[in-house]
Write a structure and sequence with these properties.
two-stranded antiparallel sheet; 153 residues; alpha+beta; 4 strands
Length: 153
């Protein structure tokens, strides 16, 4: 897929050079918003950008007495998919989708499957890799559509 983007970039570079700085920024922001929307949907569906389901939680959620919760448990990372934590922005003319603030560390640990403490001062755990962000084939096609639609105006 990286080769496809390189070929597309070399083909589109003369067209992109004709855009003003404001138009280029608007295009990058539109693409970042679309990527944020699609990545948030994959996080809510609890699968990676490639469509593979995440490894389920090790233990079901339990209350303080150790009993299984009666109500439906909230999905993993449900709050991370919100606009408060998952940001779409333009930095230096580039479209950037990422996590903001303290949630960036949590997302990094789960995305790459790193070792981290369960709670501050608590035991450490090797978290399984659960890819949160990425560009799938469908996302790439949608970005091409946005780009061509913007350039045809």
């Amino acid at each position: 897929m990286a080769d496809d983007f390189m070929q597309l970039e070399s083909w589109l570079q003369p067209l992109l050079d004709r855009l003003t700085e404001g138009e280029h920024r608007k295009l990058a922001l539109d693409m970042a918003r679309e990527l944020r929307r699609e990545n948030a949907a994959t996080i809510r569906a609890q699968h990676g950008p490639d469509g593979e389901a995440w490894t389920p939680r090790k233990n079901p959620l339990r209350d303080q007495r150790g009993q299984l919760r009666k109500r439906k448990a909230q999905s993993m990372f449900a709050k991370l998919a919100g606009a408060k934590h998952l940001r779409a922005q333009v930095e230096g003319g580039d479209a950037v989708v990422g996590f903001a603030g303290r949630t960036e560390r949590i997302a990094r640990v789960h995305h790459f499957g790193l070792r981290d403490s369960v709670k501050p001062g608590g035991p450490e755990y090797d978290y399984p890799a659960r890819p949160l962000l990425g560009i799938s084939g469908d996302s790439a096609k949608r970005l091409h559509e946005i780009l061509l639609a913007r350039l045809s105006l």
